[in-house]
Amino acid sequence: MGEAAETKAGQKKRPRRQALFGALLALQRGFAAIWASVLDECSRAIKVIRQKGPSQFQFWLIAVVIGISAGAASVGFRGAINALQGFFYDVDDIDHLHSFARTLPWYWIVALPITGGLAVGVILHLFTPDGRVRAVSDVVEGAALNDGRVEIRAGLASALASLITLSTGGSTGREGPVVHLAGVISTWVSDRIHANGITGRDLLGCAVAAAVSASFNAPIAGALFALEVVLRHFAMHAFAPIVIASVAGTVVSRISFGDVPEFSLPLANQLEFYVELPAFLMLGAICGLVATAMMRAVLFAENTADAVQKRSGLPRWLRPAVSGAVLGVMAIGSPHIIGVGYETTSAALKGQIGLRDAMVFAVIKAVAVAVTMAGRMGGGVFSPSLMMGALTGLAFGLIATPMFPEVSGSHTLYALAGMGAVAAAVLGAPISTTLIVFELTGDWQTGLAVMVAVSISTALASRLVHRSFFLTQLERRGIHLAAGPQAYLLALHRVAKVMRPVGDTRMPDEDRCWEMIRDGIYIDGNATLEAAMPIFDKSGVAFIPVVTLGGDTDAPELRGALFHVDALKTFNRALAAKAAEEHS
């Protein structure tokens, strides 16, 4: 009787188990179908982005993700600098690092940048092909020449090197490394979705905008910086996603640090009278000269360091340590050169520095920045240019306002205008820099003074260098972006891609080609149209034989012929595509 009851109960449980198993199987199949649908939709979205790019809503979602990621990278980089500086210098409040550093033993002030320089040298030697730190100029190059891509491996190594530099006494800024780190993030995404040139550049713009806005808590300026400096156009298709990414980066920053300006100005800065505006014209001219002197000092220091390294045979991995030793000695008497320098910048904006100290601090800071950059220690020029501008403007104000007290405002107004004027001239970004000054300080009532000084300084400095510090760096590497697309688009097209190969029905007579080769009129197939066009202009021929050059004793091999008309057609198509992108 008992066995029969158990058998009957087991038979009742079996259908329940089968029903439960069937339900679980159906649920698994449902999840599998949903997951397959999600993957299919993602694949379709990526395909749409590849084909139609930034005009699609899916692209904006990616822009948000990149904005959050770049903003988090910026916040994390800033937090890491503060934490490491606090650890190495044993200071609780980083905002008073320079004041506290005066109390430290001199040997500690000297030893830190030397140790940091050694670490930087080893990192760059191992992970970069040339031992050079990547920064904003490389991002600008990536946008123009590499479909919005930057070097990932070298970029990560550069970010780490810059972090160590700024944490151990280097005298540069944190914004340059953050911009390139953001470029690394966008490059990774672009590679994953196989983005074309337009999409890759706009993703790069999104990342840069988010990084800058998160670094300065300046969403408007961050978006315009990406358009003005990196993409170097204001196309409508790029505007919406870049603004969205900039806002996302700002939200990350404000969650971490709060919605407060970088610099607090206790006094209201107001123009006393419009007759004071000519003084800001003069300040703008002076700031343009100061910015030019700062840029040329950095370039001169780099040339000198290159020459010294070549003559002495100094290993490249020791070069940052030598610069660190010089910085350490300088920091013993001038601790304000340590790190980003926002404590000194804030003091200048508040008028807490005297005339003599303002002038001396500016000169020493310029030298420290040149030494750091020449040593390839890492960092950017944005924060140093803000500090240089604030000190220059304060010195000017302390001289000018006592001369005409009845029509003069506060001397701190000149510090604010000078800060924007020098930074705008160095970056070649008058629009975004003006807005950064307003958003950094929260002072929107001084627009006339800042705009006047910025306009004069950028107009003057752009004629003394190649538009900006970044474009001048690229010009020194033979990359001619400052003159516009017509100057660099030819370098994007290799002769081998445009030539008519041997065997083509349109190929000229080979005997004629060999005759021209013997006369010295030929070009290597690996060369670009940038090298070919001067040959056409000089020789006046309709075509140039294309060869593969062997060794000194090997005869060249004829590969084809490059026709002038084909080169011009390729150039014209490139110009048309660039114009279409910039005006779409």
UniProtKB/TrEMBL annotation:
CDD domains, per the entry: Voltage_gated_ClC (cd00400)
GO molecular function, one term: chloride channel activity
Topological type in the membrane: Multi-pass membrane protein
Keywords tagged on the record: CBS domain, Chloride, Chloride channel, Ion channel, Ion transport, Membrane, Transmembrane, Transmembrane helix, Transport
InterPro entries xrefs: CBS_dom, Cl-channel_core, ClC, ClC-type_chloride_channel
Transmembrane segments: 20-39, 59-81, 106-127, 203-226, 238-257, 277-301, 321-342, 354-375, 381-401, 413-438, 444-466
Source species, domain of life: Bacteria
GO cellular component: chloride channel complex
Localization in the cell: Membrane
CBS domain residues: 516-577
PANTHER family with a match to the protein in the record: CHLORIDE CHANNEL PROTEIN CLC-E
Protein name as catalogued: Voltage-gated chloride channel
Lineage: Bacteria, Pseudomonadati, Pseudomonadota, Alphaproteobacteria, Rhodobacterales
